[in-house]
Records
---
Amino acid sequence: MNPPCADLPKLDHLGRADFLNVYEPSDDTYLFVDTLHAESDFINAKKPSVCAEIGGGSGCLTATLANVLASPAAFFITDINPSAASACKRTCEANKLRYGEVINMDLLVSLSDRMESVGIDIMLFNPPYVVTPSQEIASSDIASSWAGGVKGREVLDRFIPKLGKLMSTNGSFYVVAIEENVPEEICKLLLENGFATAKVISCRRAQNEKLMIIRADMAAA
């Protein structure tokens, strides 16, 4: 496993028993952590006030983003897995996030109206991206963190058409992908659904996967 170059947030409150039911930070998490630190100036220039993470898992990415931000923001974290939602809450507490709300739900289903009215400035998503049979994605346990269905993209493809309406006019969306997900198609879908730009901004080979982070911006640079 490739360790992150940047420091991880505080996670020692989570143990082996937690990671039986919650996705444990791994190479994709580490690439995301390093990318958020590398994007620090870009992110802070937006002066984000509302941030969200879909499928928060351990809460590592939201805690990292909170550490990157120069000023406080409100954080909304969702996960369909109740064990992951509980882990996220504990990570928010351990890392002293003052404005963190964790909700056990699919994507942002129950928050859509609320988010449309305020607009999300920074959104993070490490989606289930492993190519699997479609029936494996209908899960609310730890399998929901990796089973991605056809092209490993069924969950992401279901979310992208709703995404543009949830973002602020200057918002940015960060998402993990692998080669099997066909990242150029993901970028095309994002452009077709309200984003001005979409591109791969970082990548790393880990074991048999080429991991990458795509950033999509509502406003052109």
---
Amino acid sequence: TIPGSPAPQDRPGALLAPVHRSHLGVSFRASRTHRLDSGMVVGPILDAMTARRMGSSAVAIASKNNRLLVAGLSLTERIAFWSTNVPYWALAACLVDGGLVLHAVCAGMVAAVSTAFHGVVMFGSGSPWYDRATQRLIALDILAANVYGGVLAAGAGLVASLRIFGPAVLLLTLSAMLKRRGSPRGYVWLHGTWHVLSAYGMWQVLTQTPTSA
């Protein structure tokens, strides 16, 4: 600091300057990544709005939608949809192989929570704990996706994040709408594609963007 000059934290824009986090392998910038994150909670928001309109609870509406979804799909379709979580596991394995162990753990958590949530939704509808389990798992799924996705998006920057994750988040949003409009096959196609594209997007950020170095 030059004598007589303002302290770094008092300089205009200092709080918005890039802050390097070497243990994560990315540089964080102030960016409007909440635009991307908001797409990851569309489903619960729609359920809450429907519940309010019908004088019901969001949990009851979500459980009803899940059961209607399962009823409209064959066992083969449910298994095929569930398998779209495989790219998350593949990403975690590739990150371990590449030495990005912390990122591999984070990607593994995303994979585990998504696999567990969709597995319970698709194959556990006859269980007495179905409603409680799905609500707890979707909360974890949203948390994992938003936190880790937000970290990666902040590291890549707004423009790169929109380019990499924008199409995937759009498909996620549309899939949530289709699910609640009684289109189970439309949902699994779009949401399954979201799984694949978001995993690929994470791989792009971690291996191809300058901030991943």
---
Amino acid sequence: YSASVDDAPDLLGALNASTEKIFSQAMKPITKLVTSMREFNFDGSSSESGDKYETFEFRELRQVVPPHEEEECPVLVLVDSKGLRHPLPLLCPEQGKKGQQVIEALEHGFKSALDHADSTANWDELRSALRQESRVAPPRPETEDDTKNALRDAGSITLEVFEVERWMLMANEWQVPCLPTDKDLRWRWVDSTGRKHPCLDASLDRNAAASKKVPPCELESLFQKSGDWMVSLSDQTDSNGWSYGLSWRASTWEPKPGLFDHLRRRKWTSVYK
């Protein structure tokens, strides 16, 4: 682990914030925690404070002193080969005191380094305990921002409509699909399954709907439109929102048309309150 000269680190707080990243590294042998602790700075952020750090290597570990049960803020103590004691407060500022199972698992992890020929610690038990605690932990109290966001988004709904066109070789341009096999795509405005959109203006026939340049779709009168139709853009679309594929059921859609990509689609959205 890595500890500030002036302040002992909240080891479990840091481990809890970065458990998945630490243990996703192919379970490489861990003989010190300096890299992880410095990188995450105990709260998930990168450390640029310039504080002085000391590095404790497990090969220097000689004893693991468990916390006293009566302690309000339990502290695990590591004793090195020089007899120096390194306290590890087991308190996570955001989540409070850790469960006894997690504390014991951390203690066993350090002790496993004492028994290993290469002073490598085994964190399987700790990983399991942290995951178990996260599943049974009480929900995080709502903050003022949570309440504001909930009030802001309450009752809102986003209507999504897909516009679809087919490359017509003879005309050398993109047009509304017109082949018999295109089925509902010939309406131009469809849902995510490629079927005629259920919110399409019922007064329009297929040709009238296909002639529209923006989705002729509306929600029922219970909702009021709060903005204009917007084309969704992403790294999977071109600058106009189109993505290209072989057919509607294509497994991949690309931002540029390939040789056999004769279909293109783009998503429109509108927010209602």
---
Amino acid sequence: RQVWSRWLNKPVEVDPQILVMYGHTAPITRVRFSSDGLRIISGSLDASVRVWDAFSGEIIATVRAHLLPVLAVGFIPGHSAQDERGAVNSADWRAISASRDKTLKLWDLQSGQELRRYKGHIGRVLCLAIAQWTEYEEGTGDPIQKTYVATGSWDRSCKIWDLDSGSLLHELGGKPDRNTCPNSEGHENAVTDCCFSPDGSVLATGSDDETLRLWNLFTGEEIKVLEGHDNGITSVDYAANGEYILTASLDATLKLWDVSSESGGT
């Protein structure tokens, strides 16, 4: 790859590969940056979670997370600070992992300790998404930072959890006797990916049933169903402005959806 050098006033060859990181003993299923970009987390079919320094590529922490492969991971956003030397220290020292063993686990990455386990899915957990929301305490008006985690599963359901209390807020779809959505039966096949809107108020889910669905985080209601793919959806992502969603599919297409309008078409 060539880039223009202002100093040499000509194009120069640049190797875009900065680091190669080794440590996992089986294929890696998911990677994520920390909120400040200082660290990387990875999950693997070797059932472990590893945290890497994003600049040196060194392994900072290894957690033997699950008995079966790890299928999704994410940092819980914290607040970075400077030490006495002025160096920036990332505060994303909690992470979440989802596995083929049907569980979701919260970890303290410094100690490797499991802080909480979330059970409820009856199929492998394929994806997760994290949202943070500021609520205000009644009476005092003091702000309270709430963190919610959504999980999608082979069991056709999407669950939304209160991270710190461990309570299940909503079970969207899945078995009819467990579905808490007041206006929908949910996806008809596995939930393969999920993503919160930038403000955290809406959850988007993609599925092997070829549909994209939007859900209200607080009420658990289905907002809309978007159809157009000819095969299962593999990936879902919100644009930073919250007005568009991008989906990828096994039908070999990407679709961009305008979710700011009532129709929500491509």
